[in-house]
């Protein structure tokens, strides 16, 4: 508060003047960065070091992802989707405002991991006692694979993980059987949709000869 007093000594009246200094808010984002899977919601909570009355507005720049839009509020919650097979990035620039005073914008980065799609190169039909030798690949680099197995009239199919399903399958009895593998690809912690790989296993025939040896006269039929 300033008090102004005129220099004149006649009828001098002091005049007080008050200057109100408003605090500039500082934004805090929790978390300050985030990694999500394609199709999931972002979840960024915005707070201020000054007052709960602080408001927040944000702008956005996206690369390789869709769903991010400018907005306002205390939570950035938007469904973000990767547009390709590489990790997308969404950058929010958040500005806090309190009593008409804007603070310095902060940046919140969100990485959006694409969901991988698995491709199997199977041997769809094998003979009993042979290996499946199914190669697994994905459109997203660095993907890993795991699978479950359901077998009917065969043995040898088990759950596992890796880039190749190499299991020896054997029929039970004289009928053909099958093993169905449900393969799930995962990239950057994000699982893709499972694919089904069916392997049909045919039994190996056993030849019977009756009789194994015989004797006959010249000109007779075997």
Report on the structure:
- 25% of the residues are buried.
- The protein has strands spanning 2-4, 15-17, 27-30, 33-37, 40-41, 44-48, 55-63, 65-66, 71-72, 75-76, 79-82, 88-98, 101-102, 106-113, 118-121, 125-127, 130-131, 134-138, 144-152, 154-155, 160-161, 164-165, 168-171, 177-187, 190-191, 195-202.
- The chain is an all-beta fold and 222 residues long.
- Helices cover 0% and strands 52% of the residues.
- The chain is rod-shaped.
Poorly predicted segments: none
Range of strand content: over 45%
What distance lies between the first and last C-alpha atoms, to the nearest angstrom?
128 Å
Number of strands: 26
- Overall structural class, as computed from helix and strand content, comes to mainly beta
Main beta sheet strand tally, sense and closure:
6 strands, mixed
Q: Note the total helix count.
A: 0
Question: What is the gist of this entry?
Answer:
With 222 residues, this protein is mainly beta. It has strands at residues 2-4, 15-17, 27-30, 33-37, 40-41, 44-48, 55-63, 65-66, 71-72, 75-76, 79-82, 88-98, 101-102, 106-113, 118-121, 125-127, 130-131, 134-138, 144-152, 154-155, 160-161, 164-165, 168-171, 177-187, 190-191, 195-202.
